[in-house]
Amino acid sequence: MASTATTANNLGNVETLENENQTYIADVPCTTRVWLACPLIEIPARKGNRGRIPTKQKVVDNQPAAIEVRKLAKSLDSVHWQRVFVRDTERGQLWVRLTALRVYPVRDDLPGAESWLIIRVNEQTGEIKYQLSNASADTSFQRLAQMSHSRFWMERAIQDAKGQAGLADYQIRSWRGWHHHMTMTILAMLFLLELHLDWKPKAVNLTLCDVREILEVVLPQRMMTSSEILKWIAKKHKARLSARHSHARTTKSRKTAD
After folding, report:
1. DSSP reduced 3-state for 227
2. CA end-to-end span of the chain, whole Å?
3. Tens digit of each residue's pLDDT (9 = 90 or more) over 238-255
């Protein structure tokens, strides 16, 4: 089953993925309500001899009420949270506090299928993300953490396609023209990615932007040796690393001053 990252403003998208046997992880609003234990449901008896006979299931009156995920996050003790490294960024390492709980989301006022509730807190900004996933109950915490951050790489791929291959640079009025542009953009990205994977062992900090700029330098010239290309890459990466260290020092100085 494929892993899908999406934003769920309604449960229709989630139910569609479940019906297609797709494993998903979906951002949900902080007001999403869940049960920690599955409540009892029943078809209530008719009160009196008048009115329609009830046919719709409801949660039994004496069952605990569902709780909003933002309130649930505030009620959790420190033992529930783990500190997880996400990735290196231009501003330094990104770490989050993350927890995963088995819950029953509210769907049409009834308990839905048992799911994972993943709560993620960005240590730098304090931003809190809430996610639901239908991954199996035996899914490891490490795998859930990886899935929780998969959306970034999808968005990054789209950004790279826009910035390096002109995904959004079109002026067309027909579907055929649009599909033609998208196809050529995807082929260009595939070519850049293959070059990136091929060259990266020789230059560990190589980016897609570097690959495109290399082509812009190499293609117009009659001849450029591999050593010349590596020397040009090393010069670019030295300047980039210097800028990154300068930004880190500035940020540290500001925090110390505050």
Report:
1. helix
2. 49
3. 887 887 778 777 777 776
Q: What is the DSSP code string of 169-188?
A: -----SHHHHHHHHHHHHHH
Given phi > 0 = left and psi -120 to 50 = alpha, else beta, which region is 108? left
Cα–Cα dist 136/115, whole Å: 8
Q: What pTM was computed for the model?
A: 0.67
| Digit-coded pLDDT (tens) for 32-85 | 999 999 999 988 887 777 778 888 889 998 999 999 999 999 999 989 999 988
Cβ atoms within 10 Å of 255's Cβ, excluding its own:
8
| Spatial separation of the C-alpha atoms in residues 33 and 135, rounded to whole Å | 19
Angle ∠(207,211,217) on CA atoms, nearest 5: 140
For residue 10, pLDDT beyond 50: no
If residue 133 lies in a helix (H) or strand (E), which one and from where to where?
Answer: strand 128-133
pLDDT digits (tens, 9 = 90+) for 80-101: 999 988 887 767 788 889 999 9
- Other beta carbons within 10 Å of 134: 20
Q: What is the distance between the alpha carbons of residues 188 and 205, in angstroms, rounded to a whole number?
A: 21
How far apart are alpha carbons 105 and 135 in whole angstroms?
Answer: 14
- Write the DSSP string, 48-101: SSSSPPP-S-EE-TTSPPPEEHHHHHHH--GGG-EEEEEEEETTEEEEEEEEEE
CA distance 216 to 176: 29
Rounded to whole angstroms, the Cα distance separating 77 from 74 reads: 8
Each residue's pLDDT tens digit, 105-123: 999 899 999 999 999 998 8
* Residue tagged 């449901």 (tokens): 41
